[in-house]
Amino acid sequence: MTVKQRISVILRAMRSDMFEARWPNEQPIEINAYKLQKLTGLASGTCLKIFSNPRYVPDVKVMNALCDFFDLQPGDFLYYERESDSVPRGQRAKDKQTA
């Protein structure tokens, strides 16, 4: 079970109308790690991790910067993924109760 992030997916999916609403005088751009660094001022290593490692969960400072700049909520880019085994949802809790 892992908390993962999909920041790069969200940023790449920003439609041009979303971009235009936020920056009406600018042309839409494709966001990559380098552009994310330049736009937000985040460290280059952090931006590379965001784009290359879905298991990298940014700290509060990074999440605040992303939410402020792109008008996002943490729930827009964080999600929880269960293990890929065949244990049905809720079964682990039942096993713990009977143990």
Please outline the helices and strands.
Layout: E1 2-5, H1 7-12, H2 16-22, H3 33-40, H4 44-52, H5 60-70, H6 74-77, E2 78-81, H7 91-98
Helix pairs in contact: 3-4
| Coarse shape | globular
**What's the level 1 CATH class?**
Mainly Alpha
The domain count comes to: 1
Q: In angstroms, what separates the terminal alpha carbons?
A: 21 Å
- Let me know the average pLDDT: 82
Residue stretches low in confidence (pLDDT < 50, at least 5 long) are none
Q: What is the helix/strand order?
A: EHHHHHHEH
How many strand segments?
2
The tally of helices reads 7
Q: What is the CATH topology descriptor?
A: 434 Repressor (Amino-terminal Domain)
- Radius of gyration of CA atoms, rounded to a whole number: 17 Å
Q: Which strand order spans the largest sheet, edge to edge or round the barrel?
A: 1-2
Fraction of residues in H or I helices: 40-55%
CATH architecture assignment: Orthogonal Bundle
Structural class: mainly alpha
Beta-strand proportion: 5-15%
- Largest sheet at a glance? 2 strands, antiparallel
Quick summary:
The protein is mainly alpha-helical and 99 residues long. 54% of the residues lie in helices and 8% in strands. It is globular, with a radius of gyration of 17 Å.
Give an overview in words:
The longest helix is centred in the middle third of the chain and has 11 residues, at 60-70. The protein contains 7 helices and 2 strands; from the N terminus they run E-H-H-H-H-H-H-E-H. The chain is globular. It is mainly alpha-helical and 99 residues long. Helix 3 (33-40) crosses helix 4. The protein has one domain (2-98): 434 Repressor (Amino-terminal Domain), CATH 1.10.260. The two termini are 21 Å apart. The protein has helices spanning 7-12, 16-22, 33-40, 44-52, 60-70, 74-77, 91-98; strands at 2-5, 78-81. The chain has a two-stranded antiparallel ribbon.
